[in-house]
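Supplementary Text 2. Reproducibility record for the structural model of the 125-residue chain.

All settings were left at their defaults, and a single model was retained for analysis rather than an ensemble. We include the record here because the model underlies the residue-level annotations in Supplementary Table 4.
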Amino acid sequence: MQGTFAVHGSDAERRINTLLSDRQARSIFNEHLARASQVAYMRCINPAGNPTEITLKPEELRKLDSYFKRTFNPHMQVRARPRKDDSAEVYIGDEFLGVLFRDDEDGDLSFNFSMAILDIDLDDH
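Retained model, structure tokens:
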């Protein structure tokens, strides 16, 4: 196995071998998990598993920005993500609120807003 020592005997060497094999196992697991997540995501979007273009168009970003401002807060902004075109980010000023995804499953277009709320944000000030 690559990355293991051929020396045997001491506890330190056994721990190093275990640590290296644990790291390798975690690395392999994370690679498989990432691939499985991509496949599961694609199947949610397209049950046949065929890759499809799921991009937010500039016109959709403008409409969503207008909707969030009108519905929730005039200071909200919908911004394109720097390296992803399948979703957008929602802010109030410089405060990140969540991610907005385009869902075109079964030909019914909708947008899903996902916002994580940390328990420390729930504390009354």
